[in-house]
Amino acid sequence: MTEDEVEVVARAFYSVLDAARGWQREPEMLKERFRRDARAAIATLDGNRIPVTRKVLVVEDDEAIRDLAVFYLEEAGFSVITAATGDEAVELLQADAAPDVLFTDIRMPGRVDGWAVAKAYRKRFPGLPVLYGTQFAQEDAAVEGAKIFPKPYKMSQVVSYLGELLASGAIKSCDTGQSIEPS
Question: CB count, 10 Å around CB of 14?
C-alpha cells in the first residue's frame, strides 16, 4: 500500500476514542455511518485493503475503548484477539496466541502492566511490533523507540501506522516468521 493509499484509508477511520460515550449510546447508528465511510474510502483503493490474515492483540481494560478498537481494526481488515488485562494477555500467550502486532494499554489493573505484556510477547516473538496507548503519555514515554498513542487518540492514527508497518514489511507473521507483504 502506498503512503497515499494509507492516507485514504486512514481518513475513513476519523472517529476519536473520546467519542466512545456516543458509541455506547448509539452504536448501530455510528457503526452504519462508519461502514458507509469505510466502504467509500476502500472503493477508491481499487480493491487494495489490509489483508484479513494479520492478527492484532488488543489489550485494554476500558471496555468501550477495547470494543471501538476491535470494530475499527476489523473494518480495516485485521483479525483481532482481545484481553481486558495484562494478566489475561499473558494467559493468551501461554495458550499459544500468536499475534502479528500487539496494541496494549500501559496502565491496567492486575499484576501485569502493558510494559510486562510487551516484554513477555517479544521474548517469545522477537521483533513483534508493539503499539502502546496511555493516558499518561509523558510519564510512560520512558522507553526509547516505543510507539505511544496518547489518549484520547484517533483510531485513524493507529490504523494508518499499522498500514505503514505493513507497507514497510515490518510486520512478520508470528505463525510463520515470514514478512507479510501488503496486498
Answer: 13
